[in-house]
Design goal:
Length: 631
């Protein structure tokens, strides 16, 4: 057994390039979700709760069983029965898309935790969806448009694409088809999706007819469809619809390139990334969920086509988002009106911060990591994963957040929302979480996230390797084991997070006074020929975080953090000092002995302040008052 303690061993730190033999690493690949088993104390509980409680809860609520909410599946039944323009649609126009997003997320859970009852339930949904598509000779399917304004397909003839969500819903269907096929091997939904993709290609890109998504996501979805057929050419033989993989890529490109070119259609403006071409855009603008998903699509095409224009655009958007517009929890979207990004350095404590926007920022950051192999993208993904993601659902797994302000006087979770977009996005993101922990690039293995887990990876020329890690955030100890038939050629790269060196986000929007020992440089450190066991100790000492002086709203304020967790003080724990927190004037320690809600709180050594990780907010009382930022 060999123990390497990074605090004292700097000789193992060699540059990334020496392993690759070139400056640019080969393309990253990530294991499928079922190749990585999460064993983490925190995350295995969250995933198990999601699987056993949140998934049935979301389906029950979409079916209108437990809330006074419409049964959104009824819309498909009506369309399948031949109803047209009879005004009978229930709920918002984008409900179709939300059901499809739930199928996408649940599919990735099914891949990891087979569940015949849930699978059968989804099969029934899929039968309904397929029946609704059959009602239209072209394969068009959008229950709102068909039932409410059938003359306005794709928002045309005086319709309103921004409201109708036709292309958005269709993109969600494509994504669900891909994920459900990967989870179950069943092709029914994939066939529905492919028929619709063919129709959209013929109607839009193929005919140079200027229709674009009013809500981004279809760009990324069509690339997923393209990649699936490229990786499994024989799959086309199993379907009774033609498969034209290149068309799906072309359609995604068309949607991106037509943004800012509004000839022949209603302009969607900055709200939907339509005010200018992305190749001219210097900042990330508009509705934050749309903007981040749009940017994800741009990064997708940069990856697939190796196109410099797309690459440069993706970098500009990400750098602006992280350098000037991201919140300390990894959330984005400062402004309530239009749920949009604010100007640079506008980061108020009561910002809007929709759950879905943080998820979009996470997906975008993950794609940027795939594009570049750089650790800073994982720094941001980690911040989102440990702060914005688990916040979105209550400890009982059935109450959710939509907005996630950093300070609030009366925060309440809701059992269901009239726009229930966040729970399906949450299922989708957490279903993919196991894939984000490790990456492969040739014989280089990357440990991107510190989440207790065990993975089996196929490494070219080496064979099957096993990698596992245990993480203890109370001590900062990370233990990594590698089992490989031929360790000689292997390189292991372990990410040292920016927060360990006081850099809370790349480009310095938030900083702490934490400095590290000589051995830790931010970025990946590399172990050549790793054997047995690597132990590192990350500096999880509680730290005080401050924002860049240019952030007017946060001047004179500070927040608390330890490891990847942003902390917050709830009034319930601090009633006596609520008006006088004086966060910066105290010393803190992790109080392992006295957990709150089962997690380790931060306590000031004068016993005056108790803070819990932000993701635990609003679990103990109604109208929770809490503060991330305080004097
Ligand atoms: Zn949402």
């Amino acid at each position: 057994m060999r123990f390497l303690n990074l605090l004292s061993l700097s000789i193992f730190i060699i540059s990334l390039s020496s392993c690759h033999g070139s400056d640019k690493p080969e393309r990253m690949t990530y294991p499928a979700p079922n190749q990585v088993k999460i064993t983490d104390q925190m995350w295995s509980q969250i995933l198990e709760r999601t699987r056993s409680v949140t998934i049935p809860d979301v389906l029950n609520k979409f079916e209108g069983r437990t809330q006074n909410a419409p049964n959104t599946l009824h819309n498909f039944e009506l369309v399948a029965e031949g109803h047209v323009a009879d005004g009978g649609h229930f709920g918002f126009p984008w409900y179709d898309g939300l059901i499809y997003e739930a199928i996408t997320g649940i599919s990735d859970y099914l891949l990891q935790y087979p569940d015949p009852a849930i699978e059968q339930r989804l099969d029934e949904y899929i039968n309904l969806i397929a029946a609704a598509q059959k009602a239209d000779p072209d394969g068009y399917i959008n229950t709102y448009t068909t039932l409410m304004e059938n003359d306005h397909r794709w928002g045309e003839n005086g319709g309103n694409l921004r409201w109708q969500h036709d292309v958005y819903n269709s993109g969600c269907l494509v994504e669900a088809g891909v994920h459900y096929y990967k989870a179950t091997g069943k092709t029914q939904l994939l066939e529905v999706a492919t028929r619709l993709a063919n129709y959209m290609y013929d109607y839009m890109a193929g005919a140079n007819h200027n229709v674009v998504p009013g809500h981004a996501l279809p760009e990324d979805a069509l690339i997923q469809l393209y990649k699936l057929y490229k990786s499994e050419p024989s799959l086309a033989d199993k379907l009774s619809v033609p498969v034209e993989a290149e068309n799906y890529l072309c359609l995604a490109e068309f949607w991106i390139e037509q943004r800012g070119h509004t000839e022949g259609r209603r302009a969607l403006k900055a709200y939907a990334q339509d005010a200018e071409s992305v190749f001219d855009a210097k900042t990330i603008e508009g509705h934050a969920v749309r903007a981040t998903l749009f940017a994800t699509g741009v990064a997708d095409i940069a990856l697939v086509k190796n196109d410099e224009r797309y690459c440069a655009a993706a970098h500009r958007l990400w750098d602006n988002m992280v350098g000037q517009r991201m919140f300390i929890t990894g959330g984005v979207g400062a402004i309530h009106e239009d749920e949009k990004f604010g100007p640079d350095y506008f980061l108020p404590t009561d910002a809007y911060l929709e759950t879905c926007a943080a998820i979009g920022a996470g997906l975008f950051s993950w794609r940027m990591h795939e594009l570049t192999g750089e650790a800073k993208y994982m720094d941001v993904l980690e911040r989102i994963i440990f702060n914005s993601i688990p916040t979105a659902v209550s400890l009982d797994g059935t109450n959710y957040t939509y907005q996630n302000p950093l300070n609030a006087e009366k925060m309440n979770r809701w059992p269901w929302h009239e726009c229930p977009c966040c729970p399906p996005m949450l299922l989708k993101f957490t279903g993919m979480l196991p894939s984000m922990i490790y990456a492969l690039s040739g014989a280089d293995i990357y440990v991107n996230l510190f989440i207790g887990s065990k993975a089996t990876l196929q490494v070219p020329d080496i064979g099957e390797i096993e990698i596992s890690q245990q993480v203890d955030w109370n001590t900062g100890k990370v233990n990594i084991q590698v089992r490989s038939p031929k360790t000689k050629k292997l390189c292991l790269h372990v990410r040292i997070p920016g927060w360990e060196n006081g850099q809370e986000l790349p480009y310095g929007l938030y900083q702490s006074d934490l400095t590290n020992t000589e051995a830790h440089e931010t970025g990946y450190i590399t172990f050549k020929n790793p054997q047995d066991e690597i132990e590192l100790t990350l500096n999880v000492a509680p730290r005080i975080v401050k924002a860049d002086e240019r952030v007017e709203q946060l001047r004179g304020l500070c927040s608390l953090a330890s490891g990847p967790f942003v902390y917050c003080a709830e009034k319930i724990d601090n009633p006596d000092v609520w008006d006088n927190l004086n966060l910066a004037e105290r010393q803190y320690e992790l109080d392992v002995e006295h957990p709150i809600l089962g997690i380790t709180p931060l306590r000031s050594t004068d016993s005056q302040i108790t803070a819990i990780p932000f993701y635990m907010i609003a679990n103990r009382c109604k109208d929770t008052a809490y503060r991330v930022w305080a004097k």
